[in-house]
UniProtKB/TrEMBL annotation:
Signal sequence segment: none
NCBIfam families: F420_Rv2161c
Lineage: Bacteria, Pseudomonadati, Pseudomonadota, Alphaproteobacteria, Acetobacterales
Parts forming coiled coils: none
Superkingdom assignment: Bacteria
Gene Ontology MF term list: oxidoreductase activity, acting on paired donors, with incorporation or reduction of molecular oxygen
Pfam families with a match to the protein in the record: Bac_luciferase (PF00296)
InterPro entries xref list: F420-G6PD/mer, Lucif-like_OxRdtase_Rv2161c, Luciferase-like_dom, Luciferase-like_sf
Protein name from the UniProt record: LLM class F420-dependent oxidoreductase
Sequence ranges assigned to domain Luciferase-like in this UniProt record: 23-238
């Protein structure tokens, strides 16, 4: 059965996560996702990938972990996820504890969507070399996995290095929350196969080559790398409100689709949520 979730930039002027969470939970939606941007440098030398000026919610977005915890606290079944979390801008030891904590508080409902970032200015403000960010991200994720799964973890890499240590709590989910790698084909797809528990592409980018074509290529790449494609579920973000496309996603074995909600108040969001509730009913999800 196709899972359906929503992604939203929470701001001071949007619907509150503790208000939106129950709305989604009561209607049977599977998950709520929050993007991450620590800040947006005023230099703005990196073009917005979608083209045109950067939309205001990028500047105004709240911390994803705090927003997700607010939603998790007032819901029962709704999963909460970073969509995506920028590991290139986060200390792995601090982030590992934060994720373990929210996973415990939500009783295993956290999904760790990760990405390596597109905004060079923002990334380099965190003392990260843009050119080596992909290796840094991999090391930080490997280090967090060690912290989550070992009694006395240690990690020694080029960018992440720590001796034996102790950190609790461990995550509620065993061995840890799923690490779902976001990004375009083929590079992010390869990273998902190397160290992820799933892949998050965007619907608009998949459409250029055909959703089914790239999904088939991803699964072939996984098989060739010795990974079982079934262990790498696909979550497609920014799906359109079109029943035929949703049915097609279901037919080709997509695990989850996520629709976008604007950073608006309840009056603007409820009509969108109502339409998606009807689509979900028609799908039988």
């Amino acid at each position: 059965m196709l899972k359906i979730g929503a992604v939203m930039f929470f701001t001071t002027y949007s619907m509150h996560p503790a208000e939106l969470g129950p709305v989604l939970d009561e209607r049977g939606f599977e998950s709520l996702w929050v993007p991450e941007h620590t800040h947006i440098p005023s230099s703005r030398t990196t073009p917005y990938p979608a083209g045109g000026p950067l939309i205001r919610p990028y500047y105004d977005i709240m911390d994803p972990f705090l927003a997700l915890n607010a939603a998790a606290t007032v819901t029962t079944n709704l999963k909460v996820g970073t969509g995506i979390g920028l590991v290139t801008q986060r200390d792995p030891i601090v982030t590992a504890k934060m994720i373990s904590t929210i996973d415990q508080l939500s009783k295993g409902r956290f999904l760790f969507g990760v990405g390596n970032g597109w905004n060079q200015d923002e990334i380099e403000n965190h003392d990260t070399d843009f050119a080596t960010r992909h290796k840094l991200a991999r090391e930080r994720i490997e280090a967090m996995k060690a912290i989550w799964t070992q009694e006395e973890p240690e990690y020694h890499g080029e960018f992440v290095n720590f001796a034996r240590m102790k950190q609790w709590p461990k995550p509620y989910q065993a061995p840890h929350p799923p690490v779902i790698v976001g990004g375009a084909f083929p590079y992010a797809a390869r990273r998902a196969i190397r160290y992820g528990d799933g892949w998050i592409p965007r619907a608009d980018r998949l459409e250029k080559d055909g959703v089914g074509v790239l999904v088939a290529k991803f699964r072939q790449m996984a098989t060739e790398a010795g990974r079982d494609p079934a262990s790498l579920p696909i979550t497609i973000f920014r799906v359109p409100e079109e029943i035929d496309r949703l049915r097609y996603c279901e037919e080709i074995g997509i695990d989850r689709v996520v629709f976008s909600l604007p950073a608006e108040g309840r009056d603007k969001l409820m009509p969108i949520i109502d339409r998606w509730t009807e689509l979900k009913r028609r799908l039988g999800s």
